[in-house]
């Protein structure tokens, strides 16, 4: 991996060291069942009392409502329905947060800390979550590795440069850079205790 590849990986990587206690676990929409694995682990570790599942009808398979599929998977693993909030209409990362927010605020008075379940290379979603939930001060990232669309191989930090999906990560880096430069997303600082919101003038 070249220096430039390292910089791309560092830039898009959502990871932070470890997880901590949070008000809820937020799962961004995905067609893949493994997206819920980090949520199960965090929930069973007692890190948060509530799991928010997002994602509406899949573009390729409209009958497949992403959040509902994930809810069934979690319930099959013994997680009680009352521990789940299910948002069923969103089609983008921004909508995942926008449409889940009213459901969250009906259940919780104060939301300061969140565990975000994201692909390792989608740091953008951490910023989107901070933008959509403005009271949140700290976000822990529970990351996972998706399988490549063309070759089916996972692309983690050590293998993404040889993956057929390499262009996706490069495009993600360019898009994130554009959003942060234009200040469309809030600033966050990666710390030993999660992503922390950067307040203007501080």
TrEMBL record:
Extract the InterPro entries matched here: Cell_Envelope_Assoc, DUF218, Rossmann-like_a/b/a_fold
Per the record, its GO cellular-component terms are: plasma membrane
GO BP terms: namely: Gram-negative-bacterium-type cell wall biogenesis; peptidoglycan metabolic process
Please state every residue range assigned to the domain named DUF218. 23-123
Name this protein carries in UniProt? Uncharacterized SAM-binding protein YcdF (DUF218 family)
UniProt lineage: Bacteria, Bacillati, Actinomycetota, Actinomycetes, Micromonosporales
């Amino acid at each position: 991996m070249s220096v430039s590849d390292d910089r791309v990986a560092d830039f898009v990587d959502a990871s932070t060291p470890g997880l901590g206690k949070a008000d809820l676990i937020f799962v961004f929409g995905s067609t893949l069942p493994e997206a819920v694995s980090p949520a199960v682990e965090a929930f069973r570790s007692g890190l948060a009392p509530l799991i928010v599942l997002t994602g509406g009808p899949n573009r390729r398979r409209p009958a497949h409502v992403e959040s509902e599929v994930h809810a069934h998977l979690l319930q099959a693993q013994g997680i009680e329905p009352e521990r789940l909030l299910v948002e069923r209409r969103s089609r983008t990362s921004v909508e995942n947060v926008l449409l889940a927010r009213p459901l969250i605020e009906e259940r919780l008075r104060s939301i300061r800390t969140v565990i975000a379940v994201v692909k390792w290379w989608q740091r953008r979603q951490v910023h989107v979550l901070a933008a959509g939930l403005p009271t949140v001060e700290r976000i822990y990232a529970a990351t996972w590795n998706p399988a490549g669309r063309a070759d089916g191989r996972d692309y983690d930090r050590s293998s993404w440069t040889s993956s057929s999906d390499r262009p996706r990560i490069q495009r993600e880096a360019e898009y994130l850079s554009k959003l942060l430069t234009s200040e469309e997303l809030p600033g966050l600082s990666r710390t030993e205790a999660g992503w922390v919101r950067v307040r203007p003038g501080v």
